[in-house]
Amino acid sequence: MAFIKEFKEFAMRGNVLDMAVGIVIGGAFGQIVTSLVNDLIMPPLGLLLGGVDFSDLKIVLQREEYSFDGSLMLSPEIAIGYGNFIQILINFVIIAFAIFLVIKAVNKISHKKEAKPEPAETPADIKLLTEIRDALRML
C-alpha cells in the first residue's frame, strides 16, 4: 500500500499536473501550427516554386521487376527516398519560423514595459548617521 500512496502523492503534485496540461495544450498547439503551415503557408509557397514537391525525389537502387505479361511483380523497387527527407526538413524550418512568429507576437502583446522601481527613501537613522559623519569631517 505504501507504493500506491507514494505514486498517488507523486501524480497529484502540482508539477505533474502542470506538465500534463502543458503536454495536452502543446499537442493541440502543434495541430494548429501544422494546419497553419500545411493549409496557409505551403499552398502559396508551392505556387511560387512552381508546384515542386520534393517528396517524390529518390535514387533507385533496383527497379521493380514484373513478369513477362506484366501481371505479377517479381521484385519491388528499392530506392533511397531523399526527397521526403528534404520535404520534412523544409516543413520543419517553416514550422519553426511560424512558431517563432507566434511566440514573438504573444511576447510583444503580453510584455508591458515594467516601471523601474523608485529607490526607497533613506531611513531616518541612516540620514542622522550621514549628517554626523559629514559634521565630523568638517572638524
Task: Give a verbal description of the structure.
By secondary structure, this protein is mainly alpha-helical. It contains four helices and four strands, in the order ααββββαα. The chain has a two-stranded antiparallel sheet. Strands 2-3 form a two-stranded antiparallel ribbon. β2 (65-66) and β3 (73-75) form a beta hairpin. α2 crosses α3 (82-110). The radius of gyration is 33 Å and the shape is elongated. The model has no long low-confidence stretch (mean pLDDT 81).
Key features of this structure:
139 residues, mainly alpha, two-stranded antiparallel ribbon, 4 helices, 9% strand, elongated
Summing up helix and strand content along with how strands pair, one would put the structural category as mainly alpha
SSE arrangement, N to C: HHEEEEHH
State the strand order across the main sheet: 1-4
Q: Cα distance, first to last residue?
A: 79 Å
Low-confidence stretches: none
Mean pLDDT: 81
User: What is the helix fraction of residues, given as a range?
Assistant: 55-70%
Total of helices: 4
User: What is the number of strand segments?
Assistant: 4
How many strands, which pairing sense, and closed or not: the largest β-sheet? 2 strands, antiparallel
Cα-atom radius of gyration: 33 Å
Strand content: 5-15%
Give the overall shape: elongated
Quick synopsis:
It contains 4 helices and 4 strands, in the order H-H-E-E-E-E-H-H. It has 139 residues and is mainly α.
Topology:
Layout lengths: L1 H10 L2 H35 L10 E4 L2 E2 L6 E3 L2 E3 L1 H29 L13 H15 L1
Antiparallel strand pairs: 1-4, 2-3
